[in-house]
Amino acid sequence: SPSLIWFRKDLRLTDNPALQAALNSKSPVICLFILDDRIDGSLPMGGASAWWLHHSLAALDTALRDRGGKLILRRGAALPILEDICRRADVGAVYWNRCYDPAAIDRDTAIKKALSEAGVVVESFNGSLLREPWEVKTKTGGAYSVFTPFWKASCALGEPDRPTPAPETLPGYSGDLDAETLESWSLVPTRPDWAGGLRETWQPGENGARARFDAFLDKDIAGYGERRNRPDWDRTSRLSPHLAFGELSVREIWHAALGHARFVLDGEESGAWSFLREVGWRDFNHNLLFHNPDMPTVNFHRKFDAFPWREDEDGFQAWCRGRTGYPLVDAGMRELWHTGFMHNRVRMVAASFLIKHLLVDWRRGEAWFRDTLVDADLANNVCNWQWVAGCGADAAPYFRIFNPTGQAEKFDPDQAYIRRWVPELAHGGEDYPAPIVDHRMARQRALDAYADIKGAV
Ligand code: FAD
Fold first, then answer.
1. Which of 242, 243, 260, 367 has the fewest CB atoms in 10 Å of its CB?
2. Does the beta carbon of 35 lie inside 6 Å of ligand 1?
3. Taking the model in full, what pTM does it have?
């Protein structure tokens, strides 16, 4: 009887342990993707992610067809779909790579139980993290909530397994199965067509991921440590959306980055290590979400529950549209709207502005980012928002309030990034808005609000 691989956030053929297991079973392989609209748990998928998913699935289907397989698409709740296919095709075994967000864990646990009871072998694997959340433990067996000791303990576990190559052929399943089409899902809007900037910027899918990674290894990894904070230089890897959809394996990234470092001289090795440390933050955030499943909606530090957030609809709208009158914030928000991406330094400044200058609840910013980022990822988005707000684990201290003008002078000294995204400033700035809030006043207001909740505990 055939085996089934259920693709989820692992839309690749290289180093895909679930796919490898299906192939090892020596049976015909059914390749399935289910559009379960709640794939990210309680929080819905955003528009930019939907665009990416459409193209990534198309790329995966092409890669499978080149090897003798094809991707079956179905939409709806996963359990009845899997039960239906297992029954109709007499499937003997189902394989998938694990997801770590709370709703997916609950869903997968129920599916594993139901299918096993029906006599189907079910096996799951680690296809997306360097180390799974339960592998990295403190001396007393607990979970880490501070990054540096987490990363030290993670690295001390040794190198992750070496990646396995993509299969050259695939024993496709020839029976008839109901399938839907990408077009019928309408993940990509045609009217209005807001995806032009995304098309110009990205190539979703495993080939696009690999091309970007190769270019980064060739050109930018060596100086990454010194250059990563400069949005005007744009020298980070831009692998985040590829990682969010599992188009590239982190184990492959690990071995390729260090392999590369071993061939280059001295200081350049530190580029690879500081890059891998950032990849480590991704593991850390998944670890945090796994051990604190209510983090998508609840402050990690509960004293922030008493924080006096403001209802500032005008301010929020100005922020979303890049019209706050603070050029670095506006440049970032416009880059986000146009390309589905924002440089990390600018994400920190823009998020801090919404939270601290406008006192708007971080959850509203998280939702806007989730809708507009191509790399929107529940663990990374939520944990970073909580980090900026000061209510998260190992967070930036609340009282450290970024001055958006000072940040621009430091990290975009020639205003190259700002002029690119806020062209009216390059042309004299007459139609550019005045600041919607005064920095000194806003800073003091934020400190007072913080003092209030400090007093409340
Ligand atoms: P590089 O600098 O090349 O780093 C390599 C990889 O490491 C990234 O692709 C990413 O997977 C990981 N990484 C880097 N920085 C972080 C970090 N701070 N936290 C976790 N992982 C990291 N990243 C997302 O992937 N999805 C999100 O939804 C997301 N939301 C964010 C929201 C806010 C408010 C902030 C401040 C940051 C957020 N980040 C998010 C983290 C970070 O900004 C992006 O991962 C990074 O900018 C992606 O660019 P890059 O691939 O060029 O990164």
1. 367
2. no
3. 0.97
